[in-house]
C-alpha cells in the first residue's frame, strides 16, 4: 500500500500536532512543567485514591498526559514520529478512525502502565503511547509482510505478532539504555499503545470501507 502524498487527507494529524506543540510551548513559557506533569499526567496510584480533586480527573489523564512533555526534545521526537506515520495512516483510515486510534492508544498505554506499576506515583507524560498506536497501525498498513503462509488471515496475524515481538525487544533495549542515563521511559505504555494499533489497523480499515 502506497502512502498518500497530500496533507489534505491528514487534517486531524495536523491539528493534533499543532495542539500538542502549542500546549508544550504555553507550559514552557509559564515555567509550569512540574505543575502540568502532576496535574495532567497519568499517575497509576491515583486509581481508586481519594483527596486528589485538585488534579485533572483520573479518567481523563490518559488524554491530558498526551499534551504534557518534559522538554523540547521529548515533544519534538514524538511529533516527528506522529507527522511521519500519522499523515499516511490517516490518509488510509480517515479522520474519524485516526481519532479513535489515537484516543484508544492513549488509554491502552495508560492501562498497560497501570498493570505494570499500579502503585507508582510518578506521572506518566507525553504522547508517545498514543503515537505508538499510530505507529502500530502504520506498520501493519504500510510495512512489508515478512511472513509467507498460504492463509492470508494467518499471515496477517503472524506478521502482527512478529512486529509486536520486534517492538517489545526495541522498547526493552531503549529502556535499558535510557535507564543507564537516569532517564525513565514508560516501556509498558509504548507496548500497550503499539499493540492496540496492530489490533485495530485492519478492523478500522474495513470499517471505513464497509459500504464500498
Describe the structure.
It is a single chain. By secondary structure, the protein is mostly helical. It has a single domain (7-208), classed as Rhomboid-like fold (Up-down Bundle), CATH 1.20.1540.10. 67% of the residues lie in helices and 0% in strands. It contains 8 helices and no strands. It has helices spanning 11-30, 33-40, 61-64, 72-93, 95-116, 128-142, 152-179, 187-208. Helix 4 (72-93) crosses helix 5 (95-116). It is globular. The two termini are 18 Å apart.
List keywords for this structure.
212 residues; mainly alpha; Rhomboid-like fold; 8 helices; globular
Basic shape: globular
Structural class: mainly alpha
* Distance, first to last CA: 18 Å
Second CATH tier, the architecture: Up-down Bundle
Helix fraction, binned, reads 55-70%
Radius of gyration: 17 Å
Main β-sheet description: none
Number of strands: 0
Count of alpha and pi helical runs: 8
What's the CATH topology label?
Rhomboid-like fold
Order of helical and strand elements: HHHHHHHH
The CATH homologous superfamily: Rhomboid-like
Question: How much beta, percentage-wise?
Answer: under 5%
CATH class: Mainly Alpha
Average predicted local confidence, pLDDT: 87
- Poorly predicted runs of 5 or more residues: none
Give the domain tally: 1
Amino acid at each position: 500500500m502506497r502512502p498518500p502524498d497530500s496533507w489534505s487527507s491528514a487534517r486531524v494529524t495536523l491539528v493534533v500536532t499543532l495542539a500538542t506543540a502549542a500546549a508544550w510551548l504555553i507550559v514552557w513559557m509559564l515555567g509550569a512543567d512540574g505543575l502540568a506533569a502532576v496535574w495532567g499526567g497519568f499517575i497509576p496510584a491515583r486509581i481508586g485514591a481519594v483527596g486528589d480533586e485538585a488534579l485533572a480527573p483520573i479518567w481523563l489523564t490518559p488524554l491530558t498526559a498526551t499534551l504534557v512533555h518534559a522538554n523540547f526534545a521529548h515533544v519534538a521526537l514524538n511529533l516527528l514520529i506522529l507527522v511521519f506515520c500519522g499523515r499516511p495512516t490517516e490518509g488510509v483510515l480517515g479522520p474519524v478512525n485516526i481519532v479513535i486510534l489515537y484516543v484508544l492508544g492513549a488509554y491502552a498505554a495508560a492501562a498497560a502502565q497501570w498493570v505494570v506499576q499500579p502503585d507508582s506515583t510518578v506521572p506518566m507524560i507525553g504522547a508517545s503511547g498514543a503515537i505508538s498506536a499510530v505507529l502500530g497501525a502504520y506498520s501493519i498498513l504500510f510495512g512489508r509482510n515478512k511472513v509467507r503462509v498460504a492463509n492470508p488471515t494467518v499471515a496477517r496475524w503472524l506478521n502482527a505478532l512478529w512486529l509486536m515481538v520486534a517492538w517489545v525487544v526495541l522498547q526493552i533495549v531503549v529502556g535499558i539504555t535510557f535507564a543507564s542515563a537516569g532517564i525513565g521511559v514508560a516501556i509498558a505504555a509504548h507496548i500497550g499503545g503499539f499493540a492496540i494499533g496492530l489490533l485495530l489497523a485492519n478492523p478500522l480499515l474495513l470499517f471505513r470501507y464497509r459500504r464500498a
